């Protein structure tokens, strides 16, 4: 059992050292623990108090001066369950906070009449503004494209706009989901774009749908989970700078279109790693599928395979075991 597991459960390094000793030597006398662990007596007593609070040990009533080790199958499983419940509660609070922030931003931008945020409602309005921003663009376009396979209508409306922009020598860089390789129509359109001079890369998950024009204006969804609710155009200099930096970071990490997706025989693919992270964040299967651009059935199959490979009984445990294996640190 590695240090990563105990750290995930909230144990300090000193408490882990003491716990390992009492597991190996159930009859060890408390006074001897300092010698066994090379810790100061005060540190040992503090570690014993920590282990007691966590329910891993108890003072022995039968053998004064010794500790009773609670069966690890009971104590560690119970502790893991408590952490899993706490994690779920924090994730729910974060999700509620995100929704509240989104509502506040929408309320603030819609009611103060400022010119650096413009709200768009409906697909017709959004497409009209994309066309206008594309005509005005003179240097570069950067885009995150999410949502999995693109609709035929969306590609047909985008083709003449993209061709017009590229024909003027505007640099176009787009980051698509890796899953586009599973949709022949979307893949054919993206290959057509590269033939026109666009640069395309792919990643397992994009953070949000976004188009930045000339590093001056950005088109974003009002709600990243429900993009159909509308969009907004941002013109704030500091916000645009941050969004450009976000794009460049993902661009550096993305793979060129068509690049072989290398995978060690004992390691998950980039898509599987992204699914593990989404699972660890508490996302539902539906959200994971949407973020990865794959079907719900495929998402559930991948999740089941990962949990089986990790011998995990819950998604939280799968995240802990993946972190122990060093997968999530890459």
Total discrete domains: 3
Low confidence ranges: none
Report the radius of gyration as a whole number of Å: 26 Å
Structural class given helices, strands, pairing? Answer: alpha+beta
Task: Characterise this structure.
Pfam families: GerE (PF00196). This is LuxR C-terminal-related transcriptional regulator. The chain is an alpha+beta fold and 330 residues long. It has 3 domains: 3-70, Winged helix-like DNA-binding domain superfamily/Winged helix DNA-binding domain (Arc Repressor Mutant, subunit A, Orthogonal Bundle), CATH 1.10.10.10; 115-256, Endonuclease, Chain A (2-Layer Sandwich), CATH 3.30.870; 270-324, Winged helix-like DNA-binding domain superfamily/Winged helix DNA-binding domain (Arc Repressor Mutant, subunit A, Orthogonal Bundle), CATH 1.10.10.10. Helices cover 55% and strands 13% of the residues. It is built from 13 helices and 10 strands. The chain has helices at 3-8, 13-24, 30-37, 41-53, 72-111, 123-136, 152-167, 184-195, 237-253, 270-280, 285-292, 296-310, 315-324; strands spanning 57-59, 67-69, 117-120, 140-145, 171-177, 199-203, 210-213, 217-221, 231-234, 255-256. The strands form 2 sheets. An 8-stranded mixed sheet has the order 3-9-8-7-4-5-6-10, with helices on both faces. Strands 1-2 form a two-stranded antiparallel sheet. Helix 2 packs across helix 4 (41-53) and helix 11 (285-292) packs across helix 12 (296-310). 25% of the residues are buried.
């Amino acid at each position: 059992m590695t240090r990563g597991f105990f750290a995930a459960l909230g144990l300090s390094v000193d408490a882990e050292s003491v716990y390992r000793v009492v597991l190996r030597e159930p009859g060890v006398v408390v006074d001897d623990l300092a010698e066994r662990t090379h810790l100061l007596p005060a540190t040992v007593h503090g570690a014993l108090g920590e282990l007691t609070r966590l329910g891993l040990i108890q003072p022995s009533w039968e053998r004064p001066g010794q500790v009773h080790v609670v069966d690890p199958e009971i104590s560690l499983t119970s502790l893991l369950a408590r952490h899993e419940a706490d994690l779920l509660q924090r994730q729910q609070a974060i999700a509620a906070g995100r929704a509240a922030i989104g509502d506040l931003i929408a309320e603030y931008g819609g009611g103060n009449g400022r010119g650096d945020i413009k709200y768009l409602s409906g697909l017709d309005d959004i497409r009209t503004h994309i066309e206008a921003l594309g005509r005005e663009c003179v240097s570069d376009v950067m885009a995150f494209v999410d949502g999995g396979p693109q609709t035929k209508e969306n590609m047909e409306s985008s083709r003449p706009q993209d061709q017009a922009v590229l024909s003027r020598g505007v640099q176009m860089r787009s980051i698509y989901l890796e899953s586009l390789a599973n949709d022949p129509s979307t893949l054919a359109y993206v290959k057509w774009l590269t033939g026109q001079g666009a640069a395309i890369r792919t990643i397992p998950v994009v953070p949000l749908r976004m188009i930045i024009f000339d590093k001056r204006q950005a088109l974003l969804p009002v709600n990243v989970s429900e993009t159909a609710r509308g969009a907004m155009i941002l013109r704030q200099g500091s916000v645009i700078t941050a969004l450009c930096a976000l794009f460049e970071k993902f661009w550096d990490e993305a793979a060129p279109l068509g690049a072989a997706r290398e995978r060690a025989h004992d390691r998950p693919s980039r898509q599987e790693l992204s699914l593990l992270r989404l699972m660890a964040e508490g996302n539902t299967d539906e959200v994971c599928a949407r973020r990865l651009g794959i079907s719900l059935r495929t998402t559930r199959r991948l999740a089941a395979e990962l949990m089986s490979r990790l011998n995990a009984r819950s998604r939280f445990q799968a995240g802990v075991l993946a972190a122990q294996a060093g997968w999530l640190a890459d």
